[in-house]
C-alpha cells in the first residue's frame, strides 16, 4: 500500500497549487489565498477530523490516492458498506469492496466511518428484500440480527463511527418510510431502535449516528421536522443515538441562494438537534452547480463563497466534530449524473478539478477550518 510522509504531503499540496497557478488560475485566489497546509492538519489544530468518501475502484488511481493521503485523516465508503453491495442476493455476501477500503485505511493510518448499517429506504434495498413477507416479527429480527452482526463486527473496533440508520424520513411528507422489515416489526421506529441497540451491543464505544440529507434548501421544511421528530422519538425510547450526520449536499438550490432567511431557519434546525445532546458530523459535503452558468471562474467563486459561509455556520458549533467531503475530484462526483446540466458542461462540485488540481473551493474549506474555534 502507498505511504506518504508529512513532508511529501506538504510538497504535493504546494506542487498542485503551483500547477494551478501556471495553468492560468484566475486572480480570485485573493478571495481565498492558496494554503499549502493539508486540510487534515488544519482540522487537527481545531480538534476536528477532516476526510472524504472513497470508492474501492479509486484505490487503483494513484493521483486520487495521493490526494486522499495528503488531505484526509478519515475516509468513508461511498457505496461499499451498503446492503445492495454487501448482500445483493439471498445467497450472496460480498465484503471484498468494503474490505479493500478498510485495509487501505488501516495500512495508511487513516480512520474510518461506517456508512451505513441500515439504509431504511425501499429504493435502496435489493428487490428481493423489498419482496420479503415475514410471518412474524421474530423472523424479521433474526434476519436483521444476522446482517447487522456480519457487517458491524467485520471491522470492529477499527470503525470509529457508524451511520446506523440512513435516510429513513420521506423528504416530501416528513413521515417515516416503510420497508419489509417495518411492516413485520410493528413500524419503522421499532426497526431503527433495534438496529441502534444491536449495533451498540456489537460495537461498544462506537459513535452511533442517524444520517440524512435534509438541508437549508427551499422545500425541506417537512423533511427537517420529520428528522427532528424521529431523533427525539429514538432518544425518548433510550436508543443509543449519539450523533447526527448532516450530509450537507446542496442538491437543488444553487450556492447563491443561501439567503439570510434560509440561514436563520437552518441554524434553528441545527440548534434544536444540538439541544437533544447530539454531536454533529458533516458527512457528505459537496455543492451542485446545475443551474449556474458555464463560466468556470464564476461558478468557482459562487461555490467557494457558499462553502465558506456554510462551514462558518456549522464549524462554529463545538458539537461539530467531523467534516467529510463526498469525494475530492470532480470527475468522480455522483453529481455529474444527478440533475444533469442542460449544457453538458462538467460540474465542479468538489475540491479538486478533474485534472487533480486544487480549486478555490479547497481554499474556502481551509479558510473555514482556520476560522473555526478549537474543540475541547
What key attributes describe this structure?
TIM Barrel; 376 residues; alpha/beta
What do these coordinates show?
The protein is an alpha/beta fold and about 375 residues long. The protein has a single domain, classed as TIM Barrel. It is built from 13 helices and nine strands.
Q: How much helix is in the residues?
A: 40-55%
Q: Determine the CATH superfamily.
A: Glycosidases
The share of residues in extended strands comes to 5-15%
Q: How many DSSP helices? A: 13
Q: Mean of residue pLDDT?
A: 93
Q: Record the strand order, biggest sheet.
A: 1-2-3-4-5-6-8-9
CATH architecture type: Alpha-Beta Barrel
Q: SSE string, helix = H, strand = E? A: HHEHEHHEHHEHHEHEEHEHEH
The backbone outline, from C-alpha atoms, is globular
Strand segment tally? 9
| CATH classification, class level | Alpha Beta
Oligomer description: single chain
Number of domains: 1
Low-confidence stretches: 1-28
Largest sheet composition: 8 strands, parallel, barrel
Helix-strand category: alpha/beta
Alpha carbon gap, first and last residue: 34 Å
Give the radius of gyration: 20 Å
Amino acid at each position: 500500500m502507498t505511504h506518504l510522509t508529512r513532508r511529501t504531503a506538504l510538497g504535493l499540496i504546494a506542487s498542485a497549487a503551483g500547477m494551478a497557478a501556471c495553468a492560468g488560475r484566475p486572480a480570485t485566489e485573493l478571495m481565498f489565498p492558496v494554503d499549502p497546509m493539508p486540510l487534515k492538519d488544519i482540522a487537527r489544530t481545531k480538534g476536528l477530523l477532516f476526510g472524504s468518501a472513497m470508492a474501492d475502484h479509486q484505490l487503483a488511481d494513484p493521483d486520487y490516492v495521493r490526494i486522499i493521503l495528503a488531505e484526509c485523516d478519515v475516509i468513508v465508503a461511498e457505496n461499499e458498506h451498503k446492503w445492495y453491495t454487501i448482500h445483493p442476493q439471498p445467497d450472496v455476501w460480498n465484503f471484498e469492496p468494503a474490505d479493500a477500503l478498510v485495509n487501505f485505511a488501516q495500512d495508511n493510518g487513516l480512520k474510518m466511518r461506517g456508512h451505513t448499517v441500515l439504509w431504511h429506504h425501499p429504493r435502496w434495498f435489493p428487490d428481493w428484500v423489498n419482496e420479503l413477507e415475514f410471518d412474524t416479527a421474530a423472523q424479521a429480527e433474526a434476519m436483521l440480527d444476522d446482517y447487522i452482526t456480519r457487517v458491524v463486527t467485520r471491522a470492529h473496533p477499527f470503525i470509529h463511527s457508524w451511520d446506523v440508520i440512513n435516510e429513513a424520513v420521506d423528504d416530501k411528507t416528513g413521515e417515516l418510510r416503510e420497508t419489509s422489515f417495518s411492516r413485520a416489526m410493528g413500524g419503522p421506529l421499532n426497526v431503527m431502535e433495534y438496529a441502534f441497540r444491536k449495533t451498540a451491543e456489537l460495537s461498544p464505544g462506537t459513535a452511533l449516528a442517524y444520517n440524512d440529507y435534509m438541508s437549508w434548501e427551499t422545500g425541506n421544511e417537512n423533511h427537517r421536522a420529520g428528522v427532528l421528530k424521529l431523533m427525539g422519538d429514538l432518544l425518548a425510547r433510550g436508543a443509543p443515538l449519539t450523533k447526527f450526520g448532516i450530509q450537507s449536499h446542496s442538491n437543488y438550490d444553487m450556492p447563491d441562494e443561501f439567503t439570510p432567511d434560509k440561514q436563520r431557519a437552518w441554524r434553528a434546525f441545527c440548534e434544536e438537534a444540538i439541544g437533544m445532546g447530539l454531536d454533529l458530523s458533516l458527512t457528505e459535503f459537496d455543492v451542485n452547480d446545475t443551474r449556474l452558468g458555464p463560466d468556470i471562474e464564476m461558478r468557482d467563486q459562487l461555490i467557494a463563497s457558499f462553502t465558506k459561509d456554510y462551514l462558518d455556520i456549522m464549524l462554529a458549533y463545538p458539537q461539530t466534530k467531523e467534516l467529510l467531503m463526498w469525494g475530492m475530484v470532480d470527475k468522480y462526483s455522483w453529481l455529474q449524473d444527478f440533475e444533469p446540466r442542460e449544457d453538458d458542461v462538467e460540474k465542479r462540485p468538489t475540491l479538486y478539478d478533474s485534472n487533480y488540481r486544487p480549486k478555490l473551493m479547497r481554499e474556502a474549506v481551509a479558510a473555514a477550518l482556520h476560522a473555526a474555534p478549537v474543540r475541547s
